[in-house]
Amino acid sequence: MEKKREGVIEETSLIVSDPFYFLHLWPSSLTFRFAPPQHSTLSHRLFDREIQTFLAFLMLEETWETFVADSLLYAKIFLIAVTLIMDYRVAIWFCVIFSVIYLLAQQPAFSKLGTAKKLTPMQLEDLLSDGTTTKYWLIEFYACSSSKCVRSSRCFPDLSITYSDNLLFFGTIDLGLFPNTATKFGISLAGGMSQLPTYILFEKGVEVSRFPDFYVDAAPSLPITKKLLCQHFELDRLLLDYINGS
Question: Which InterPro entries does the entry link to (predicted)?
């Protein structure tokens, strides 16, 4: 209970202190709907539909980063649509303000690593060159400047806490800091880093599986979720193998 309370306090502190949340929240907070009293019945029905939509939205969002990013985006779209009906000049000003905010403040990635290890290219090479080991390594290749990596940044630490053991280890390497490593593993950084994040499972230093499984010019189409990564790399099976001692 104490750890959960500390987590809530930390998230609240992040919202207050980080420029992204501070700058993006204040204009989005203007997005409220006021229904005229004479249409109270229609307003009540509309409110019920809004509740249903909001609950469905919560079910589709897996991480806090994705939820916040999508919520702020939809709030801005709604606010611009409303002001466009009222006065197009106000809508234009909002578009300018939102554009400036987007350029000045980028969403921060999830800061914790779980049990994953942050690796350098040399450390990764040492791990993969040790051919005598029977360990599995699941490596995340990411870049903090990629919005996709930010939105899915919580998935990998959460998976590492659940599935990390003496058989399976987790590691991350920042291709924003070490771009030359991308070429070695067939990851393209062109096109706005559309191939990131990339996850590769190594067994005895040899690649056995990768997600997204695509060629150089292809881009992943599915959103990164914990369930998707767990199924693709069969993490439940690896955990059972460890428990059964196989």
Answer: Thioredoxin-like_sf (IPR036249)
Select from 104, 127, 161 the last residue of a domain. Answer: 104
Whether the bond into 197 is cis, omega within 30 of 0: yes
189 membership: H or E segment, kind and range: none
User: For tokens 């990564």, what's the residue?
Assistant: 229
122 and 97 in a common domain? no
Residue 138: give its domain's CATH number.
3.40.30.10
Contact between residue 80 and residue 168 where contact means Cβ atoms under 8 Å apart: no
Residue 84: what residue type? L
Same domain, 121 and 185: yes
Selected residue with higher pLDDT from 105 and 44: 105
Question: How do residues 50-93 score in pLDDT, each as one tens digit?
Answer: 555 454 444 444 566 677 777 777 778 888 887 888 888 888 88
- For the stretch 147-191, pLDDT in tens is 888 888 889 999 999 999 988 999 999 998 999 999 889 888 876
Q: Which residues have C-beta within 8 Å of that of residue 190, sequence separation ≥ 6?
A: none
How far is it, in rounded angstroms, from Cα 147 to Cα 151? Answer: 6
If asked whether residues 121 and 210 sit together in one domain, one would say: yes
